[in-house]
Design brief:
The protein is about 65% helix and about 0% strand. By secondary structure, it is an all-alpha fold.
């Protein structure tokens, strides 16, 4: 199990943005889309970096 890892704080703002994408998809009539393709690509790369960091920590602990 991975405990709280302070280094993930650097991803907080981007995670909030990514969470907004979910709301936009889930409730399209209540949230107006203004997201660009470039923003999505950037967020995708951040998500990939988060996954890579998790995998690295997990492998390090096992």
């Amino acid at each position: 199990m991975i405990e709280y890892e302070p280094s993930f704080e650097e991803f907080r703002e981007e995670c909030l943005k990514i969470t907004y994408y979910y709301f936009e998809e889930r409730y399209p009539f209540f949230v107006e889309s203004g997201i660009t393709e470039e923003e999505v690509k950037g967020s995708f790369m951040v998500a990939k970096n988060i996954i890579d960091r998790i995998l690295k920590l997990y492998k390090h602990e096992n």
